[in-house]
């Protein structure tokens, strides 16, 4: 390791003071065994070494910090290092012995990487994950829940200063070769293992609880592995409020034959739900698919159903009753009803003789296979052109609040990839993203995608940008687009973004914000407009 000395507070009483320029940097000379340096403790702090002062002569300085010099470690690049990440991080041989560690997270990360061999372990010399983990020394942050603290480089490790990062950023810092999908998998797995959500489970037959489970505010969405029995809430066609109808279609499950199992997070947002037919002749609960936002929430309902010996793979809802709520109260006899898309076949129903219930049955006259909240027999009339069309060839338009034939629907609607549904053309927005080559791409998206979805954010350039292409400035509480990133820098201390107007340089060569320096009155600025810690000067 190489060293330099900065003359920040050399006393006139120092016998060589006349040959020293204040705030000048002097290299500690190391020419093999002829110019040794003396260090102490595991952090290799400099005790003594040869320095050439202003008179051109070489002197041995013993304990230079006591003579008014600040010792700076000069980090070098190990050109023989094969792993590019470790080479950029700092010389492996100069890592201080001992130090902080998080054995639990370390082991978890090793196992996770080993089990995902697509990370590039074909050439371990170029991808030495074990040494990377030992260098960065990742730890579960105690100060910032859900984050990982790492030593960003060798200099930070020598100073024992960690940076708390979101798990995805920490992982890509240590393993930049990993693709985006694998990072998402890692984040979800990490949160499930080290930052579990505060969830509660509720079971009810009440009408308002069915409504809440479907239309209530959704909890934060994670990426999950889906099957027929475990589905993402984002794919649910009935999770909207259906304000144009007398009641939410899910309320008709409140006939007494069904239960709604709901998982709430700590803010009473919906994390998972499942409709269960509990009046089956066998006495065995017949569970529909579970919809959720995270593996943890799905597992919670899954465990509850297993504990009740519920049928989950091949549920039977034949004979189940739903409340008969006519779309038009004046129609006699009613032919159209408020009702949900049925997740369990058969998706046909018959009206009971007393007109109180709709009973699920094979060959029923009422079709419950559409997503518009209205189930009916017979064809429908296109609200745009007036033509009557078979229900198999209609689409419900929330904009027109009625069914449209395919021609009218396609002419007046577009499909939003990010909401995974269609919207009226009047609800389209322009958003931006970077393509695979880093070029700006203009996107056509829905109002929902930019207002309620989690894929786009409003940036300081007054544009909606894809979340993967922007950076968050915590100090300004603003999102920064790629076009505006030139006006910002990332602090070497807290790793956050700040405007270039806040940029300050320390005597250690670090770029930090004026806001960070203001938190500690011991930081002062020298004649070269560089900041130093006063206690170090003393």
Would you summarize the structure shown here?
With 538 residues, the chain is of the alpha+beta class. The chain has 4 domains: 73 residues, SH3 type barrels (Roll); 111 residues, no CATH class; 179 residues, no CATH class; 50 residues.
What does this structure look like?
- With 538 residues, the protein is α+β, with helices and mostly antiparallel strands.
- It has 4 domains: 73 residues, SH3 type barrels (Roll), CATH 2.30.30; 111 residues, no CATH class; 179 residues, no CATH class; 50 residues.
- Helix content is 18%, strand content 29%.
- The protein contains 12 helices and 39 strands.
- Strands 1, 2, 3, 4, 5 and 6 form a 6-stranded antiparallel β-sheet that branches. Strands 10, 11, 12, 13, 14 and 15 form a 6-stranded mixed β-sheet that branches.
- A hairpin with a 4-residue loop joins strand 36 and strand 37.
- Helix 2 packs antiparallel against helix 3 and helix 5 crosses helix 6.
- The longest helix has 15 residues.
- The protein is elongated.
- The two termini are 25 Å apart.
| Average predicted confidence as pLDDT | 86
Give the CA-CA distance, first to last residue: 25 Å
The amount of helix comes to 10-25%
Whole-number radius of gyration? 33 Å
Tally of distinct domains: 4
The percent range for strand residues is: 25-35%
Helix count equals 12
Largest sheet: 6 strands, antiparallel
Taken from the alpha-carbon principal axes, the silhouette is elongated
The number of distinct β-strands equals 39
What class do helices, strands and sheet pairing give?
Answer: alpha+beta
**Low-confidence parts lasting 5 or more residues at pLDDT below 50?**
none
């Amino acid at each position: 390791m190489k060293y330099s000395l900065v003359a920040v507070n050399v006393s006139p009483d120092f016998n060589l003071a006349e040959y020293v320029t204040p705030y000048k940097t002097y290299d500690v000379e190391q020419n093999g065994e002829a110019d040794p340096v003396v260090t102490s403790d595991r952090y290799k702090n400099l005790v003594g070494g040869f320095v050439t002062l202003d008179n051109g002569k070489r002197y041995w300085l013993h304990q230079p910090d006591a003579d008014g010099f600040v010792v700076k470690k000069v980090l070098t690049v190990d050109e023989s290092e094969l792993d590019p990440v470790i080479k950029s991080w700092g010389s492996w041989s100069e890592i201080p012995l001992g130090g902080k560690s998080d054995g639990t997270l370390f082991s978890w990360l090793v196992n996770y990487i080993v089990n995902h061999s697509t990370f590039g372990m074909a050439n371990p010399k170029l991808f030495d994950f074990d040494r990377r983990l030992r260098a960065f020394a990742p730890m579960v942050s105690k100060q910032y829940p859900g984050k990982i603290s790492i030593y960003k480089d060798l200099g930070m490790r020598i100073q024992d200063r960690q940076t708390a990062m979101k798990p995805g950023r920490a992982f890509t810092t240590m393993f930049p070769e990993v693709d985006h999908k694998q990072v998402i998998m890692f984040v979800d797995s990490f949160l499930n293992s080290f930052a579990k959500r505060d969830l509660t489970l509720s079971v009810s037959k009440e009408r308002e609880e069915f409504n809440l489970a479907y239309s209530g505010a959704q909890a934060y969405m994670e990426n999950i592995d889906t099957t027929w029995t475990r589905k993402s809430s984002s794919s649910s066609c009935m999770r909207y409020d259906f304000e144009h109808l007398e009641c939410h279609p899910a309320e008709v499950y409140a006939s007494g034959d069904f239960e709604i199992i709901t998982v709430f997070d700590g803010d009473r947002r919906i994390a998972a739900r499942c409709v269960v037919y509990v009046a089956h002749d066998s006495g065995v609960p017949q569970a529909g698919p579970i919809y959720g936002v995270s593996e943890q929430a799905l597992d919670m309902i899954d465990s509850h159903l297993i504990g009740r010996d519920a049928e989950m793979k091949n549920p039977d809802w034949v004979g189940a009753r739903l409340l008969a709520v006519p779309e038009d109260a004046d129609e006699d006899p009613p032919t159209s009803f408020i009702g949900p898309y049925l997740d369990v076949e058969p998706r046909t129903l018959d009206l009971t003789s007393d007109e109180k219930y709709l009973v699920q049955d094979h060959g029923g006259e009422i079709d419950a296979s559409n997503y518009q909240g209205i189930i009916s027999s017979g064809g429908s009339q296109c609200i745009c052109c007036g033509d009557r069309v078979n229900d198999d060839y209609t689409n419900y338009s929330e904009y027109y609040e009625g069914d449209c034939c395919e021609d009218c629907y396609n002419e007046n609607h577009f499909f939003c990839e990010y909401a995974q549904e269609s919207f009226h053309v009047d609800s389209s927005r322009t958003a931006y993203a970077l393509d695979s080559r880093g070029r700006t791409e203009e996107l056509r998206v829905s109002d929902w995608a930019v207002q309620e979805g989690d894929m786009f954010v409003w940036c300081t350039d007054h544009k909606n940008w894809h979340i993967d292409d922007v950076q968050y400035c915590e100090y300004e509480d603003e999102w920064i687009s790629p076009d505006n990133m030139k006006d910002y820098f990332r602090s070497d201390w807290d790793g956050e973004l700040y405007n270039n107007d806040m940029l300050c340089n320390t005597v250690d060569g670090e770029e930090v914000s004026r806001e960070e320096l203001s938190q500690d009155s011991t930081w002062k600025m020298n004649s070269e407009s560089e900041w130093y810690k006063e206690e170090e000067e003393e």
